[in-house]
């Protein structure tokens, strides 16, 4: 099995931390190597018969220029071409305008979106369900996976889920 996964999310939610955890040292070597002009391969995860290529999708963020509109279209094209989109959010700060903007973009995409609730080490377990509800009201997600990218907690579960896409 092999496939492409795009990672989206507002700044500071933990995208790089997750990639570092999954791919380790390789990321430093690969992160500056452009795959196309605007999509960067963050890294490749390989385990037995599985290979997952992670893509950074910088154009998804809010921009106020014509170039920004173009970047957005490029990003949306990418998101439509991958097997799954990982939408990372930060449960310690909760739902914000940056998240809402990304969700609006994701509504234009047909690819399954996996909601990754990151930084669960920062909150009490009881506070997670209401946060999940907030996101669920805004969009239908294919899966919801809580993780801590920093400690690696539940990251293996996320990789297991990805093997099915
Ligand atoms: P990015 O902008 O989405 O790539 O976010 P980064 O990976 O650079 O992470 C932003 C900050 O959040 C850094 O200080 C990370 O150490 C921190 N961070 C990332 N994941 C976690 C997590 O699971 N738990 C905690 N407590 N901090 C995290
Ligand atoms: Mg980053």
From TrEMBL:
Coiled-coil region list: none
Positions of region (G2): 35-39
Domain of life the protein comes from: Bacteria
Span list, region G4: 118-121
UniProt subcellular location: Cytoplasm; Cell membrane
Region described as G3: spans on this chain: 56-59
Signal peptide span: none
Residue segments, region G1: 9-16
Quaternary structure (record): Monomer.
Listed name of the protein: GTPase Era
Organism: Paenibacillus profundus
Encoding gene (name): era
Whole sequence portion shown: 16 to 180 of 309
